[in-house]
């Protein structure tokens, strides 16, 4: 912030007002986003390695990832709060400035900087910032801002212990009813790890951002008319009336994880039954 270029007192001189535009925060959200991408890829590497080694989940390592992710989210919230605060403080500063009479003579200025003669007492932009910050720190809308709206890292970390035991477990994200308690509930039934279009196990599961239905990449691309097609068609999921196009789809990380774990479990079972048969011989 280049606060030095601004007058400490109101009203702002018309020539000084333009400096208000220059008072901005350094945008470090992009670095936080980079960190989160790294974190997510570390998580995927841990999962891959653990699956490859047929090992148990490294809970301490995952806990430290979760802590790091929470820390990133907190920092992002703080940055978002600071940014909003500065904007509000600037607006307030300018509005208040307009309420003061223009200073034409030095004598008036002397009166002005003497707090008892002023509207509220001269305040600097920093004073406005501090006042607004107190208010915004307690604002719930800002303190729940997420770096990545869906926070995939947190989602994966949360569901991991459940799907590790049962890759087809139905998990419902239940944020609305019980915020303090564990958000995740396990319900009856099971998730199909088979694409409804290709009727084969998912290879590259893609989820529709519009309706949350998942199809295999090859299946949905063929359905929509090829990889470069811009066509919109009804979602192929029975009963879904959303119109979707290729750009509405992204990798379904959760389904990918389920499939990876399911494959690993299958491999494990096979190895076990193989070694059992050897034992019998
Ligand atoms: Zn759908």
Automatic annotation (TrEMBL):
InterPro entries recorded: MMS21_N, Nse2(Mms21), Znf_MIZ, Znf_RING/FYVE/PHD
A Gene Ontology biological process term: protein sumoylation
CDD domains linked: SPL-RING_NSE2
Start and end residues of each SP-RING-type domain: 180-264
One annotated GO molecular function: SUMO ligase activity
Entry keyword set: Metal-binding, Nucleus, Transferase, Ubl conjugation pathway, Zinc, Zinc-finger
Annotated pathway: Protein modification; protein sumoylation
GO CC aspect terms: nucleus; Smc5-Smc6 complex
Metal-binding recorded as keyword: yes
Location relative to the cell: Nucleus
Source organism superkingdom: Eukaryota
Family: Belongs to the NSE2 family.
Protein name: SP-RING-type domain-containing protein
